[in-house]
Specification:
By secondary structure, the chain is mainly alpha-helical. It is built from 6 helices and 2 strands. It has one domain.
Length: 201
């Protein structure tokens, strides 16, 4: 009789232990995972965006229009300088000293004006392009956040296609733009001083 009771106790203990183990396993399986999801890392080639995006090209075109008056003034002064320099070089022998001096003074004045205009144009271009680049970066950041990317690397020497979101960013940026709507976008000329300006009187 004692043997039966002992056997029954052993069996019951084994069953309880088995059920406890199963409950523990089930609880572990059902417990929410605390492991963080891996960050979604992508690469965007900003230089390519600047070269191919219709919207950015439109921004460049507007900058060019803004400084166009300054460039026109510079070119007009440059033409005057070239004409007076040629006159001095080819006709000096037929001029009296007073006329030569007057022409040299005019050339010196024009040269100074050209240098001032050139610096003004360069400063305007640099300022406007800096603002345009800042806007480009802000827009790329906004687009990447909207697309759900956690980390975006601005440029890489080499990147696999599945981690390169450049084309997608350009498509999102240019949504609603068409080639016919984009302003003409020649490369902005900084109106560098011509060889005539570099000549010394």
């Amino acid at each position: 009789m004692k043997k039966m009771k002992l056997f029954t106790l052993i069996v019951c203990t084994a069953v309880v232990s088995s059920q406890a183990a199963q409950m523990q396993t089930s609880a572990v399986a059902q417990a929410p995972s605390t492991q963080a999801k891996p960050a979604k890392v992508m690469v965007v080639q900003l230089q390519e965006v600047g070269q191919k995006s219709l919207k950015f090209k439109d921004m460049q075109g507007k900058i060019e229009k803004k400084i166009n008056d300054k460039v026109t003034e510079f070119k007009a002064l440059e033409t005057q300088f070239s004409q007076k320099l040629e006159k001095l070089q080819t006709g000096a022998k037929d001029m009296n000293p007073s006329a030569q001096q007057k022409l040299q003074e005019e050339l010196a004045s024009l040269k100074g004006q050209l240098e001032v205009k050139q610096r003004s144009i360069q400063a305007a271009v640099e300022s406007e392009m800096r603002l345009a680049e800042e806007k480009l970066i802000e827009e790329v950041q906004t687009i990447c956040k909207r697309l759900g990317y956690d980390i975006v690397i601005p440029g890489a020497i080499s990147v696999r296609d599945e981690y390169n979101c450049t084309a997608q960013v350009i498509a999102e940026m240019d949504r609603g733009f068409s080639k016919s709507e984009v302003s003409a976008t020649k490369k902005i000329e900084t109106a560098a001083a011509s060889s005539a300006v570099a000549h010394k009187n």
